[in-house]
Amino acid sequence: MGLVIAVAGKGGVGKSTLAAILVNLLAERAGEVVLAVDADPNANLWEKLGMRLENTIGQLREDMLRNADDLPTSMSKPEYVRYQIRLALQEGERFDMLTMGRSEGPGCYCYINSILRTFLDSMMDDYPFVVIDNEAGMEHLSRRTTRRMDLLLVVSDATKTGVETAVRIRDLAREMEVEVIREVLIINRSPKELHPAVKQAIASSGFQEVIHIPEDRRVEELAIVGEPLAGLDRTSPAYRTLRGLVSGLI
Questions:
Q1: Closest by Cα among 33, 56, 34 to 43
Q2: Where are the domains of the chain?
Q3: Is 173:180 a contact under the CB 8 Å cutoff?
Q4: Which residue in 4, 63, 80, 214 is deepest, having the highest Cβ count within 10 Å?
């Protein structure tokens, strides 16, 4: 099984940006194809990785429920799901991407979700590194059958409220009984001097590690114009900080 990295955090703290930088760094340093999973219903990892948003797992799930009586008779449901997931997988030279898409609508998805979990977990086993960009509630983490996460990165801004939210997200992962090997708090856009209240919140957060990523003008410029983060300058503060994290994984 490959090394699984989950990136979580409340909206607006830059978790998708950091996930995209991680995907690029891992692919670059490992020299192998990385699997990027966008598990946030507000999907935008595809844009930051310079890919097109085509099929999503959410669309597949809805289509299966809506057309349950019209599935091909030449293949079983599991075979059909495997085929459709492969179609939903967007392949690139350095990384592949799966977009989970919207949450469930009305109806019973139990059987469909069971099949999806089985094949998604199997697919993740085919990659040396998997980066999952999660929503704050980490819904998709709770549904993984492996119940294992090598690295959980919880992203916060440099505020007391942000850090407290990060703690709640970390505690939610523990309540889900997901086996997390390493928990790291990421303070994104961290100023040179933190407010004393933020320092205290970090000190009492209970995270195993804390990493500060400085404000990065180049990252902001790319976000403003919607350019992929593959074009990020290798001397940028965000790139250099995350490169140090990745160096310890490879």
A1: 56
A2: 4-247
A3: yes
A4: 4
Separation CA 218–CA 216 (nearest Å): 6
Neighbouring CB atoms inside 10 A of 154's CB total: 29
Q: Could you report the per-residue pLDDT of 85-137, keeping only the tens digit for each? A: 888 888 988 999 988 876 655 655 566 666 667 777 778 888 999 998 987 66
pTM for the model: 0.87
Strand order in the sheet with 148-156: 95-99, 34-39, 129-134, 3-9, 148-156, 179-190, 209-214
240: number of CA atoms within 13 Å, CB side?
A: 9
And the tokens for 144?
A: 């993984």
Pick from 184, 186, 241: nearest CA to 209: 184
pLDDT digits (tens, 9 = 90+) for 207-217: 989 999 999 88
**CATH number, span 4-247:** 3.40.50.300
Structure tokens at 68: 């349950």
**223 token code pair:** 């976000």
Find where tokens 């919880």 sit.
Answer: 154
pLDDT the model gives residue 108: 55
